[in-house]
Design goal:
Length: about 325
């Protein structure tokens, strides 16, 4: 009888046990999962980077279509920024190309509010700069710091923003600095692209070919300065403050490898792309950047491209020849 009771109790105890992992088994499982994650993470990062690059290219294509529609209406591309009175800028105020382009990127409401009879840093334009326009933003760019003030850049005074301004990662390339090649780029006839300050340039004036002339470059992350991939909040910057900023356009200078020196010309093995966003082409895409050409095409160029070949793509009538298949 007692034997039966013990047998029954033992059976209940055996049947009531829950299967589980030993500590060794658990550590092995965690180790396997960690290895799998380490193997998968680079692949996931590559997919994410490729997706960001595609969105960026789509943004630039939309800007290309908008620029061509503007050109169709006005028989010229917009100036990178206006600083003087002209038939195309009757009030003579500082107005940038992005503000002029808003009706062509489905932002008619923004254009209706933007006032070209005052400077971009005056109301209502200053408050309007807080409106975020997605097509001006590359998804690979890290979050910007909050900007509340900007130093003076005459004739613009020091600014205090009533609302946090929205940034832009795309800028008009105005041409090439003479220091890149003092002989070839000695005059505005050879060192300019198709969108520079107070310009009125049409497709027929792009003698180097629309498919070999860049209009818009990535210059991501401004107004925060980057050198290499290192953010430098200690460095001041008065350009590229927000999308309404008309003063952000620049000419290509070239820089040394870490971006600490610009305007060196062809010495010191200069870099044309991704050394710094201090008024130089710069993106957060690994290995290169996207560029919008005057024919509306968007190309990804590797950041190993030399300064002189890239400079040739930033002018419209200097007569240089570049084989894009090399880059």
């Amino acid at each position: 009888m007692f034997a039966g009771i013990h047998a029954c109790a033992g059976g209940l105890r055996d049947g009531g046990r829950r299967p589980g992992f030993t500590l060794v088994e658990l550590l092995v499982a965690i180790g396997i999962i960690s290895i799998l994650m380490a193997l998968l993470l680079p692949a996931v990062q590559k997919v994410h980077a490729a997706a960001d690059r595609m969105v960026c290219q789509s943004n630039l294509r939309q800007l290309g279509i908008a620029l061509h529609n503007y050109h169709g209406d006005r028989q010229a591309f917009p100036a990178s920024g206006w600083t003087m009175a002209s038939p195309r800028n009757p009030a003579g105020k500082y107005v940038g190309w992005r503000a002029l382009l808003t009706p062509y990127i489905e932002q008619d409401g923004v254009r209706a509010l933007y006032d070209t009879s005052v400077h971009w840093w005056e109301e209502p334009n200053l408050s309007l700069s807080a409106f975020k326009i997605r097509v001006f933003l590359c998804p690979s760019t890290p979050d910007r710091p909050v900007v509340t003030t900007a130093g003076p850049k005459p004739p613009r005074p020091a600014l205090t923003f009533p609302l946090v301004p929205a940034g832009t990662d795309y800028e008009a390339i105005m041409g090439v600095a003479r220091s890149v090649d003092p002989i070839l780029y000695a005059t505005a006839a050879t060192n300019r692209s198709a969108m520079f300050r107070n310009s009125v340039i049409n497709l027929n004036q792009i003698y180097d070919g629309a498919s070999h002339t860049i209009l818009v470059v990535e210059c991501a992350g401004r107004p925060l300065i980057y050198r290499g991939r290192v953010a430098r909040p200690d460095l001041p910057n008065d350009q590229g403050i927000c999308w309404t900023d008309s003063e952000g356009g620049f000419s290509l200078d070239g820089s040394n490898q870490d971006g600490s020196l610009q305007g060196l010309g062809p010495i010191l093995t200069p870099r044309a792309i991704n050394a710094t966003n201090e008024n130089e082409p710069y993106s957060f895409h690994p290995g290169g950047a996207n560029f919008l050409f005057a024919d509306g095409s968007v190309r990804y160029l590797r950041d190993t491209i030399g300064l002189l070949p890239f400079a040739a793509l930033c002018t419209r009538s200097a007569g240089e020849l570049v084989d894009l298949s090399d880059y």
